[in-house]
Amino acid sequence: MTAVEIGPTTAAPAGTDGVIVLSGLTKVYEPTPRWMRVMARTHVRANVTALDGVDLTVRAGQICAIVGPNGAGKTTLFRIIVGLTTATTGTGRVLGLDVDRDTEQVRQVVGWMPSEDRSLLMRATCRENLHLHGRLQGMSRRAITERIPEVLAKVNLSGQIDSVVAGLSAGMKARLRLARALLPGPRVLILDEPTGAVDPIAAHELLGLITDLVRRERLAVLISSHRLEEIEALRSQTLLLDRGRVKYVGDLDTLREQWERPQLELVFDSAATADRAAAALLAHGLAATADGHAVRCGLRPAEGAGRVLSALGPTAGEVRHVREIPMPLRDLIARAYRQDAPEGIR
Ligand SMILES: Nc1ncnc2c1ncn2[C@@H]1O[C@H](COP(=O)(O)OP(=O)(O)OP(=O)(O)O)[C@@H](O)[C@H]1O
């Protein structure tokens, strides 16, 4: 996992009201009506529950990362907040505005960065793209003209104001999409896979910009990403979604405390000794696997290196190195999804 230093976001002081408050949000997509099926490229045959009772509060100055496998409901959640679809039940509020009833006002305070470049006009310049977007948002020409240099400066694209979008790198296009989301001066940012199409260095730069903006402007941010190392680097709140249900919401340190099962790695002089050691550990009921000269052994809560070394018996004297390996975030999240019994190791 890459060690990306992006820095923590400032947690909002306790008691601050939520900027985004979702309560019991449920979305059920209904089957495509019969008369529409001929026209629809794909159609839904049965009810699909995309969100199932989601509760979430995001405060000013907080980033909340929405994590979940394909189809978990991330985009549906975002689409409800920006008024592109409505919830079946439950409520969503942004700065006290109802996302269903006050759609127009909500759009004025929410900056939405969709996951793809398709919404950019490739043959137009950055300035022209931002101008068009501002007009579509209902901004006055004057306000747009004033804001364009400001938002381009925020995303380090001042030098590209009159560059044609097609000639920009993927990272620059992503920053332009961010600038577009910032155009109306939003209090909330919704970033759907912002780094999806960009290389890791450009992604790091983009996330750095986002965390800086959050700190300076105290924005409330929802972000989705399939890149777990990015979520880890953001050190944000995290909402784990699984088929529309919330599996976990909180910070990653607490997630670790709850689900982490570190492993011990024991290194021997030979593969044969490692095999013997793994067999001894297995015989004592420990989860161990040999890999070349090394053995990895999962630890249960309250188990330490002592338990492992005593299970090794005489082979303990042949251990050359021992180190504890923290559980990768990917495995940690997988455990949370499986809702393993905390004392068990699988
Ligand atoms: N317009 C729609 N009509 C019917 N079902 C839909 C529609 N949009 C999404 N779904 C279904 O709702 C569920 C959640 O989809 P959603 O796109 O919100 O998930 P996601 O987490 O954003 O997935 P991905 O990571 O692939 O973008 C999926 O089962 C999807 O097939």
From TrEMBL:
Read off the PROSITE patterns from this record.
ABC_TRANSPORTER_1 (PS00211), ABC_TRANSPORTER_2 (PS50893)
Q: Which residues form the signal peptide?
A: none
- Keyword Nucleotide-binding included in the entry's annotation: yes
Q: A Pfam family name for this chain?
A: ABC_tran
Q: Which GO terms fall under molecular function for this chain's record?
A: ATP binding
Q: Which domain of life is it from?
A: Bacteria
Give residue ranges for domain ABC transporter. 36-268
SMART domains, A to Z: AAA
Q: Where in the cell is it found?
A: Cell membrane
Major site of localization recorded for this protein: membrane
Q: Answer whether the UniProt record assigns the keyword Nucleotide-binding to this protein.
A: yes
Membrane topology type, per the record?
A: Peripheral membrane protein
Give the keywords, sorted: Antibiotic resistance, ATP-binding, Nucleotide-binding, Transport
The family classification in the record reads: Belongs to the ABC transporter superfamily.
Protein's name in the database: ABC transporter ATP-binding protein
What is the organism of origin for this protein? Micromonospora zhanjiangensis
